[in-house]
Amino acid sequence: MNRFLKILFFALIVRPVVLIGLGLNVRGRENLPKRGPAIIAANHNSHLDTMVLMCLYPLSKIHKVRPVAAADYFISKGGFLAWLSLRCIGIIPLDRSGTAKREALFQECHEALDNDEILILFPEGSRGNPEQLSELKKGIFFIANQRQDTQVTPVLMHGLGRALPRGEGLLVPFNCDVVIGDQIEDINDSSEFINAISESFDYLSQFCVTLGKEES
Amino acid sequence: MFDLPQNSFYVMASVVGLLIIASTASFALGLRNPEKDYTELRQRIQSWWVMIALLFVVLTISKNMAIAFFGFLSFLALKEFLSIVPTRQIDRKVIFLAYLAIPVQYYWVSIGWYEMFIIFVPVYVFLALPMRMIFIGETKGFIRSAGTLHWASMLTVFCISHIAFLLALTPLNENAGYIGPVLFLLFMTQFNDVCQYIWGKSFGKHKIIPKVSPNKTWEGFLGGLATVTLCSALVAPLLTPLNNLQGLVAGALISLSGFVGDVVISSVKRDLQIKDSGNLIPGHGGILDRLDSLTYTSPLFFHYLYSAYY
To answer: For a disulfide at B298, which of A84, A130, B39, B162, Cβ 3.0-4.6 Å?
Structure first.
């Protein structure tokens, strides 16, 4: 039932918006992990980021793709947003308060990986505020480092912060770049690991065709 | 068959025939030289199949369907243009307004209101966009931003909508119907691209504009011009009200302006240091990479035909 709802939601709403309203320039599709367990690390500028990444997968696999999202933003307030996030998108809520124990924090992520699912993580932690980076930065390392069966695939997106930036309700159509990089090698140091991800983002940005518009 | 006027039907069938030849040739090439990689050629031809099929289906279904289809192409082209060219983050709402011009412009086409169709973008949209910009009030980068949006709307909405208005003209050639002139324009423009490419590949030596497009040569340009002009003289009476002599002129016009359109979009890409404007069409690049010549050939062919017969 849940899977059916998810397929319907993506087929009728998300895919038309992402593929026609936006339009994707995908590079390096062959690097995209086809099946789980897998972890995708992407940059975060817009609510559309999650939708775009999920649209890279066929509808038959959509229930296997699990974005990890802030529990305080999407779930705590309950109501429609929580229902949409959990039922239609299938997020894994993550406690950003910093009070939870690490094992408890990532338990659901590990369960998903054990279940051969594909995690989507945004190491920046939030769309706009880089200050909230630190905890989740370590987070992705702690999830990946504990597992022998999977590695992290970096994905750089550009243009979505322009189509639907934080705090705006009007979606303006723009093509967006999605560049998928090579897997990050196993590194046993958290800050080196994070560096490797941001270096990879830097490298991937040269493949964007929509980058001419940074100046505002 | 399919209720299509006979000449249009024959031309469409010939195009499918050409595609079959192209597919067979690329398949044979692959068999003969198994060590070479023909992926891009194969993708290119496959994409041609898809584009031609889509076009023929909408042209066959109904006039309004075809007009809506070209409106959708305008949308894709405008979106692609504004995605690769620098724009100000603050102009999001102005850009949204520019998108809204598309359904309005194609509505004028669908009701055949020529006077409005011909001034809507160059007058009303031209004046409205900067007005919307002053409501936002940011003056830094104002001139460049207004220029970008105007050029984008003219190229992708105004120019492309001329293809659609060909459908709204009263058909004067019974055997071709209202789709005849559109088929003629699209076929000749794309045929010109192919001819200039083939002549250039075979005999190209002297570069025309090495700074913008190093692959364009005088041999390719002139060879294409001669081939297209001659073919056009033969085909024009089948698909349009034009006679042989007028077809000759139309062919030369399409060949010359198609070249310019191609090079203009190339300059945009070169300025932005990108090779393709997107990757919507496998083997071709973005939608602008395919519509580049048409941005110039459509209004020029349209007005030649219009001034001669309407």
So the answer is: B162
